[in-house]
Structure formats: C-alpha cells, structure tokens
Amino acid sequence: MMTRKLLLLVFGLTGAAFAATTETPSFDERVVFTSGTDGYHTFRIPAIVRANNGDLLAFAEGRVENRRDHDNVDTVLKRSKDNGGTWGSLQTVWGKDDGGLITWGNPCPVVDRSNGRIWLAMSWENYKVYVTHSDDQGTTWSEPKDVTSEVWNPSWPRPPAPILAIWTGPGVGIQIEHGSHAGRLVIPVHLRRHPLLKAEQNEAACFFSDDHGKSWQYSKNSTGFGNEPQVVELTDGRLMLNQRHYLAVEKRKPGEPRYRLISYSSDAGATWSPSKPDDELIDPSVQASLLRYAWAEKDDPKDKGVLLFANPADPGKRALMTVRASFDDGANWPVKRVVREGPSAYSSLVRQADGAIGLLYEAERYGSITYARFNLAWLQEKSPATPKP
After folding, report:
1. pLDDT (0 to 100) of residue 221
2. pTM of the model
3. d(CA 364, CA 209)
4. Domains of the chain: total
5. Distance between CA atoms of 303 and 377, rounded to whole angstroms?
C-alpha cells in the first residue's frame, strides 16, 4: 500500500496549491498524430498516461484504410520525454502483424505506481477484451492476453455470438490510492447490445484487479443508458463513473440538451448506482476525460482537492473543447476555459511530471490528435468563475 507521503510525491500539488498558484499563465499545443501519415488513413481515440519515469505515452487507434470504427485498426503510441514539448516516432503496440482485417481498438491504459508496470486494455473485434503490459516504460509489450472470461459478468449474454459488444474505456483507467482497496487497478468499460435497438441498451461498468493485473474481476453495470465512461476516486472513498449520454433523440424534446451521466460506487467499483444526469456538464454525445489532479493538502472536510474534466461543451455538435475544474468532488465545476472553439471530439487528460496539465484531443474533424499543455494559472485566468475557498 502506498503511503500518503509517496502519493504526494507521485501525484504532486494539492488542491490548496491549485487555488493559490501565482504562476504566469502558459499555454501551447502541437499535433501528435496526423491522419494520412505513417501508413494510417485516420488516427482516433486518444488516451494518455505518465509513466513512472515521467515519460508521456500517447495512445491512439491507427485506422489503416478508412475512418470506420470496425475495420483494420491497430493500437499505436507516441512518446514524449520532455513533458509534451516533442514527440517521438510512431510505435505499433499491437495489430500490425495480426494477419487480417482485425480491430484492436479503444486503448485504455493504467499505470501501477507501485511497480511501474503499464497495463493496456484493448477491445478485440468489439466483443472481446485483451490486456498487455510493459515493464520498460512502454518500449516493449507482452503478448496480449484474452481476459474476456474474467471481465464478462455471467448475467450478460456471452460470445461467441457477438450480441453484446464490450469496449474498454476509451480513455484511461485508475489505481485507487486510499482506503482498504488502495492499489486496485480499475478499467472502465461499456456494453452495448448488437445491433443497437434502443439507447437504453448501452450500459457502463468496469473491471478491476487486486493482484497487480494477475487476474481481473467484473463489476455490475450502472443500469442506465450511459457509455464510454471514465472513473475517478473521490475523497470520501467512493468512485465516480462519468459517462457519455446516449439517450435516443426521439426521447428528447426539440432543443433539449444532453448532460453527462454520473454513477457512484461505494465498494471500489464492484457495484454502481443508477446513472443520473449532471446538469452542469453539457454532453453532445461524445467521450470525455476525467482526472484526479490533486488531493487535499490536509484532512479538512471542506478541502476535497481538484478534479479536472474535459469535453466538447457545445450542446449540439462536437466543438468547443473545454476544460473544467471542481473543488468539491464534482458537485460543482466553477472554473472552466475553452481550449479550442472549432471541431473537437474525444480527449484524455494527464498530469505532467512538472505539474502542468496535458490534454490529448481529437481536432479538425479527426484530421489530427493534438496535445495542449497549460498550467493552472492559464486555466483560471479567464474562467467565468473563481475557485471556492
């Protein structure tokens, strides 16, 4: 179990430090993946983690011949050794030598901070789950292992007939840092009847490991119509599952916005509450990103550290990429700032080794995956609201 001192060293500044920062605002960005290069028609579905040595690993789907979700798709990555300033050459994690038109997609990595091992969950052909791992900061990867039988709830319909699709993430998993389940690895997933007949046939869940990835266990679903979830640990010990809203258009009134769906777990991800909308988080039906940026500096019930959230915040289309901050475990999001006004879609947040925030996101109608990095001062500089004390 990691001590609080180690956690502060690994995960950095506290919520109090966030609110009190006197840094000069700083923002820049650069393209990491460009569609039509490196032998791939399109790059989509970004996910990013920081390895224990500080390297940033940016994962994506490399779609070989077209933009379709289910086709010849590889899982790829690029690395930055300088906090996102420059990015190395493309590396294919898996798929290039699979011998056929197979989808290896929805990369969902998580770092085991206790030993530095990086786990990567992937969806195979939309109805099986494989995991691979790296013990050298993502340079080499193990042969992917089929863990579908471990993560598939027996109450769900089972393959080989793919009547229920299962996708990892997309985005990232987490490692629980506090309480009796500290060290648990949690990977969010979503399920969908195939073919989709009703929006309510989307359901969010997760799978987890208490033995550093040697074995995995399934959770019960969140009994809603959310999908593409991300998970975060709260200060009271619960987990929160933040989900894409998939309510059918015909069930909404004209002009009625969608909002992110929220579910909670009081048993470290084994079971989830029914999903309910968060009327502060507009959702144009798209994946989003969620990150525990900092924990509270002291045991003060009013100080809950900092959560960050990013998604396209336009109510009608995938545009207006926005980053928000919460100081009360996601009950409110008083700080927000637009990163890109134009087209944008899926995203993944990370905390860099230098304490800055990184956002890997799809831009220009899937023409690129871009990395924006900025500090806390920039996020707060022109926010319409200020942090709560």
Report:
1. 82
2. 0.91
3. 37
4. 1
5. 19
